[in-house]
Amino acid sequence: xxxxxxxxxxxxxxxxxxxxxxxxxxxxxxxxxxxxxxxxxxxxxxxxxxxxxxxxxxxxxxxxxxxxxxxxxxxxxxxxxxxxxxxxxxxxxxxxxxxxxxxxxxxxxxxxxxxxxxxxxxxxxxxxxxxxxxxxxxxxxxxxxxxxxxxxxxxxxxxxxxxxxxxxxxxxxxxxxxxxxxxxxxxxxxxxxxxxxxxxxxxxxxxxxxxxxxxxxxxxxx
Length: 222
What we know:
Layout: H1 5-13, E1 18-24, H2 30-37, E2 41-48, H3 51-64, E3 72-76, H4 84-87, E4 96-101, H5 105-118, E5 124-129, H6 134-143, E6 147-156, E7 159-167, H7 187-204, H8 212-220
Parallel strand pairs: 1-2, 1-4, 2-3, 4-5
Antiparallel strand pairs: 5-7, 6-7
Helix pairs in contact: 1-2, 5-6, 7-8
């Protein structure tokens, strides 16, 4: 199966080697396979709650991976309860990258509420790519004092997806509407912003929905 543009962009954002990379909601494991081949981590963890998918991934790895068997692990668990401490050989210094992509923003926030408790004791970075509710996700991250490492706006099958790479140890503020991801010389970026503004303008017609501040922040980007 061919890796889509979203997963390709996530791969490009990963520019250092980690002790552990956790590919959450890994689906068919395409991203994890590529990170394993690229030796992006000492151990790549494949995470999902669908047993059949993980059985397929494990069979593929056992039959085709010719490298170190310790380089991968498969976990059929909820992404909110990653066994980070149990898998760390040096808990205080082992570096972790947690990737969550392809799920809704509200579910992503729910998972992050659990995962952020782990980041109090471990050096953890996150790469997040929700399928919607980007502003809400970003605001949650800001409220929880995560800073920006990198971000990107990628287009796949006619839709725009925001990817944010964040950490509690970053000194660069994260913007609720995006900052370094924008390239307004690109018509796709201009159109994505136009659609986002239109979305909040429609919501603003509901007298019970106060999105004035959100709408203003996006409009100021223009």
